[in-house]
Amino acid sequence: MRGPRGAAGRGGARVALALLLAAALAPRPARPHPQCLDFKPPFRPPRGLAFCRRYAEFGCCDPRRDSALLQRFYRLSARLDGHSYAACAGHLQDLLCQECSPYAAHSYDAEDPSTPVRTIPGLCQDYCTQVWQNCRSIFRLLSADRELIALENNMAKLCRYLTLEDTDYCFPHLLANQNLNQNLGLVTADAEGCLQLCLVEVANGLRNPVAMVHANDGTHRFFIAEQVGLVWTYLPDGSRLEKPFLNVSEAVLTSPWEGDERGFLGIVFHPKFKFNGKVYVYYSVEVGYEERIRISEFRISPSDMNALDHNSERIILEIEEPASNHNGGELLFGDDEYLYIFTGDGGMAGDPFGTFGNAQNKSALLGKVLRIDVNNNDRGPLYRIPPDNPFVHDPTARPEVYAYGVRNMWRCSFDRGDPHTKEGKGRLFCGDVGQNKYEEIDIVEKGKNYGWRAREGFSCYDKKLCANSSMDDVLPIYAYPHKMGKSVTGGYVYRGCESPNLNGLYIFGDFMSGRLMSLKEDHATGEWQYSEICMGTGQTCMFPGLINNYYQYIISFAEDEAGELYFMSTGVPSATAPNGVVYKVVDTSRRAPPGKCRVEPLPVKVKSKRIPFVPKEKFIMQAPIPQPRLESTTEAPWGGRPDLKPPTTAAPSGRTAKPRKGAEKRGQRRKKKPRNGAVRLMERGRRGRGRGRVEIYIDGEWGTVCDDGWSSAAAAVVCRQLGFPYVVRATKKAEFGEGTSLRILLDDVQCSGQERTLLECSHADVGKHNCSHEEDAGVVCSREEVADW
């Protein structure tokens, strides 16, 4: 609400701000955070429990642990006389079984692995009083805690010792707490139905990681390909080998330009790699003055199982590319052991090649899904045509064509099928990048036409072609408009073991917007239901090793040998920028029972130096930052620039949408001298809008801030100055470039997060520092809580 201008208006704003702060600090209902004593999510026991039956459907005990608790019950209850047994055995069982509660970590104060665990679960005051009055001796049986035993005869002090600070989790009240027990064991979702998942960082420092594959040979290694043409070997312990698995960077055609679609684009291991050592790759090359895509075969080195023999390359297929974009890039082997190749339509815009474009021309290899047979090709032709290819007898079509009418399918996958029923096995999912309006997900089938350039998503693109009833094109299972994202990245149907609630969920993303999405098949109707995927907020991801943020540009998805799901993204979409990170997707609402997902990798002979993995990304506790002013004004809050446009929507990774053209110019019309402590964000030489290198104005000059001590609290001060209510990430190491033309003005900044400017924080003397511009600090801000985008 807009108040009157002047002192009264400002006073009203201060009152409103005080109320806002009071509301923010007021106690709120507990946000459910199920967690076991091993600091992992609860699970559904594989069999019923004989002793702690209350937790037989969902909790933290498997039958083995349940049996151990029963044996302990027998030992302890044998020390009770007949009267005590009748009065106290039930209490003894209840207290022992709290180890099986889905909230065991809370009951035992064990959310933090570094703190000591209680010997008796946290009790509610009234229950503790009841047990003390009738069965106080069981406390001595359950615990050897000397301090607790010393309090045994003082009910008030003992119960104070045993109660929890967070009364939502005390026993037995938590059993009736609707907030804690509603939807327990289901994937966490916010009020709008956005599924909240978490991540594990598994690799970093990569230059546009375009693919991650496994050898399916029992070693559980994975191999990550960079767009520049290098492929790296990662061992099951997370370490990377110093020697690349493959290096074709001198042959690969790409550039440092952001968004260049050429480069090393795909890799796949032969299904019988364990026996024949063959690997197939897809990359861009320049031959003479022609740009081509090349499909090559390599063999494993006879002297090193973690490197390909670079002299073994055989070119299986080359296709001329008329333009530098729409290069396709996916390679897959199906259950039929044939090689599937996914090509783009040749580039430019609107598939302008020929009468109907390359995609509709079955005599062209571009804009297609190809299927060839590369088995037993050591003698004779490099590949053969599978006899059941759909156009093998059509003289007007290339026999390699399996499906057509595709624009630029970027990342496809075969469904492994349900782990138990195998339902869905062999379905081929693809994300097909759109032109001007829509992105789509297709299930590719033999001989089908997927509509491009007649259709884009469900909409007509070429109206004349679209009206041709003889096309008989297949519609996508899902399409989304460009307000949601402008470049789909196809994903996988989750069929792993560790996150059973995700089984059957097709998870994919968008390269431009950073949006993570999912589709779930409704078996009754055959339709696919859409759900957004957000990063977990609150305590959802507060488990050891988990994070809740990622870089915006989602490049690719992957499965490991066990079927767990990963994706790769970067903060700088350039083939030469080492900003790529690989993340594993984790659902913390429910895990598999202990031991079910254990794998025993076959040994790997390593000849190269191992480089241990060091994670760099951090968990972000996203809390709303109070707005410093509530009145409407054209004056920038606390020295920042005025916000003259509606709020932008933040990407789930914390990146903000681009401002409208002209917004910068409107902001620059004000010629007022900046206040001391005013801040601005800079990104690659231009003003950042919600993200960038932090620059501060002090005593007539702009300068940078060193990242020594730089924290999310300091970033919160900057974001609030610029009118953003949320801080997503405090960045370091000059992530948004070095401000070498400016002096470093602040170092050793320490903030509580409530200061109005960085100058109110603790810091070294202005202009004094012990750092370089390589340590320039930055921030990523948002107008909305990132996970709710």
TrEMBL record:
Residues 624-681 are annotated as: Disordered. The keyword Glycoprotein applies. Residues 1-32 form the signal peptide. InterPro entries: 6-blade_b-propeller_TolB-like, Folate_rcpt-like, Glc/Sorbosone_DH, Quinoprot_gluc/sorb_DH_b-prop, SRCR, SRCR-like_dom_sf. Residues 679-782 form the SRCR domain. Keywords: Disulfide bond, Glycoprotein, Secreted, Signal. Belongs to the HHIP family. This is HHIP-like protein 1. It comes from Lepidothrix coronata. The gene is HHIPL1.
